Amino acid sequence: MTEKEYFDSRLFSNDNEENFDLKALLGKYLKSWKLFLVFMVIFIGLAALALLFINSSYEVSSKILLKNETSNIDASGNNLVSNNPFSNSERVNNEIEVLTSVQLMRSVLDSLSLQCKFIAPGSFPETELYGSELPFKVIVDTIYPSAYDTAIKIKVEGKDSFSILEEFEGSSSEAGSMSSAYGYNRYNYGYKIEKPYGTFQIVANEKSSVKETEFLVEFRDIDEMAHDYVKKALSVYVINKDASVINILLEEQNPEKGEDIINTLVEIYGIKAYQKKNAIALNNVKFIDERLNALSVELSEVEKNVAQFKTENELANVEFDANSFSEQEIDYSRKLTEAEIELKVLSAIDRNLRKGDNGSTLNSLSVSSPNLIYLIDNYNRLQIERKSLQRTVPENNPRMIDIRDQLEQLKGNILGSLSTSRQSLRSTIGSIRSRSNQFAAKKQRIPSMQRQLLEISREQGIKENLFLYLLQKREEAALMVGVRQDNFDVIDKAITDYESKVPSKKLFMLISLLLGLAVPVGIIHLKDGLNTKVTGKKDIEKRTKVHIIGEIGHNSTGKNIIDKGEESSGLAQDFRMMRMNLGFHLPKKKMQTLLVSSVQKGEGKTFFSSNIGVALASSSSKVVILELDKHNPELLGALGVNKPEYGISNYLAAGTNAINISDLLVPVSGNANLFAIGLGSEKVDGLESFNSVQMAQLMEQLRNDFDYIVIDSAPIGTMADTLALSKYSDSCVFIVRESYTGLEDLAVIEDARVNKKFKNPMVVFNDVANKK
């Protein structure tokens, strides 16, 4: 690769770069490391502080297996309870609804006397005490709504006694306070305490080893507590939809309390189910006994009627005769129906054949004659074969003619067989009807008392079966009374999962760490989003396709021009690199006049013009810099030269013969090859003057006398002046200043490129901070 190709690849590399620059993004974050550090400390501190005041909760769970109710059988193998009319999934869902009922939870809380909340006085944050953390237990009998506004202090006085201090809201003392106290009253453990707000007992807790002697007690609404537990803390669900295992999950701050609640929930659930079954069984026994007594009387009466009827009419074998007749009558009726159906089918076949429809097949269903079935099957087979051949061969085909002949022959045979079969069927129907009439006559001779006896016997049989059925169910129901047989098994009793602690310290710290990173990132990107200035090279590359030929670092020296002896400075190196880039970017025979401009004032075009002139002149090239910014002529001051008597404006106003170009040239001290021409003392109409013949002659002579011409023009906001000079230039350099040039200003540069308003446009990125 040649040196020119190398610089070309660097200049045009922005066309191939990806939009996302990870290195630049990380660099932006590293510059704001202090911001990240501050927010990390803040959020981690807040997380640590929150963990001190937030009460943790744990998951307490238990598993139960619902039994199949039809599996309960007695010693004889009979079911003790009736089959469940619902499917397994429906039954499981019903039991889940029972377990999550507010009424069941209320019974649990009432059984554990959880209307009372115990707190250690002065503890912060406030933590509820329970079970082994207390030296006593409170057994609540009755609580009234006034208790919810009452707080009591219990003080342990010894092994056998305690004292109570009562405080309640809503009353006013002489001092005007919002609470009042009755004072300490001493009681023995087990004494039934009756107060206006409720009745309760306090008993000693033998398992407690706590040393505190004073506790604060608050009363709570048990109905509200039950509702909150069911809606917010309790979760009951099926582990596997194909199984009957139910998982009971409870979120509770105190693990011991949570385990007691779940175990008591399962226990009371079983007790209530037992009580329900026992009540149903007792009701069934009572109902069956009443029905058995009534049936016993009815059955005795029916048996007497049967015995008396048979004795009077001597009907010992009538039942057998009646049954035989009924069977024969049904059999002949079935045969008659079948024969009539077959006769209709044969008549239909005969009609179809005589209609002359040679393309249809015949239905042999309900035909009993094997010979006729055989002929019809052959006929149908030939019809199907004929239809198949009609798609491929003509009617005069030998095979088609043969099939037609066979069909005609079969048709005659079928008609003959049909005639014979129909005559035979008519004879059979007549015979069946004759035998049926014989049984009808025989039926008329059966005594009417036969029907009476059947009715009496039928009633007797029904009552006997019902009596035996009720007697069996009465014994089954009696066996169920008083026998507790739960419809579930406890797989796992309540177990606390200490790993499920909420909030998790690790998770809390991780979230605070992520917030400590995310907030600064958001601030940085919000600042970038609100920024309207060019902050990096990427901003230029995104908004314009004009090539960037170089970057100029921030000038911290305060000097406007590079002095001799500073060639090794970073600023001098930047201009030396741009001098090389200019040479490689444009052919030397074309790049002689360089027009320097910007979008707005203050972007450093004069600073660039001065120093690029110094850089070009240091390569033994003869360079002249023209001061053509009539709005802000600062070039000569930046070069450190005195303002001459004549300038370009004087030259253009007086004409080419009045003032020589040598009169305009001002040498720049420190560099023998660098000259400057000032704007002059006359007013200049840029559009008219820069398009004049004198200006064209001036530029032509300067081209002949100098190697490079640098024009310090006005910002392209005054477009007429700068455009008038563009025709004399070989290239136009736009100066973009970091954190100064507006992002919308880049659209002006891109518009100049797209509409080709300037020759060979290029961009120089000026005043770059932290340029390496």
Describe what you observe in this structure:
It is a single chain. With 772 residues, the protein is of the alpha/beta class. Helix content is 49%, strand content 18%. The protein contains 21 helices and 21 strands. Helix 9 runs antiparallel to helix 10. It is flat. The two termini are 25 Å apart. Keywords: ATP-binding, Cell inner membrane, Cell membrane, Coiled coil, Kinase, Membrane, Nucleotide-binding, Transferase, Transmembrane, Transmembrane helix, Tyrosine-protein kinase. One of its GO terms (cellular component) is plasma membrane. InterPro entries: AAA_dom, Bact_polysacc_biosynth/exp, GNVR, LPS_length_determ_N, P-loop_NTPase, Wzc-like_C. GO terms for molecular function: protein tyrosine kinase activity.
Topology:
Elements lengths: L2 H9 L10 H10 L1 H21 L3 E10 L21 H12 L2 H10 L4 E4 L8 E2 L6 E8 L6 E7 L4 E9 L9 E10 L3 E4 L2 E7 L9 E6 L2 H12 E5 L6 E8 L2 H59 L4 H37 L15 H21 L7 H47 L3 H33 L7 E15 L2 H26 L6 H7 L3 E7 L16 H16 L7 E6 L6 H13 L5 E6 L6 H5 L8 H7 L11 E2 L6 E4 L8 H4 L3 H13 L2 E6 L5 H8 L4 E7 L7 H10 L6 E8 L4
Parallel strand pairs: 14-21, 15-19, 15-20, 16-18, 16-19, 20-21
Antiparallel strand pairs: 1-12, 1-13, 2-3, 2-10, 4-9, 5-6, 5-10, 6-7, 8-9, 11-12, 17-18
Helix pairs in contact: 3-12, 5-6, 5-7, 7-11, 8-10, 9-10, 14-15
> What is the β-strand count?
21
Q: Give the overall shape.
A: flat
Major β-sheet profile: 8 strands, mixed
Into which percentage range does the β-strand content fall? 15-25%
Query: What is the CATH architecture term of the largest domain?
Result: 3-Layer(aba) Sandwich
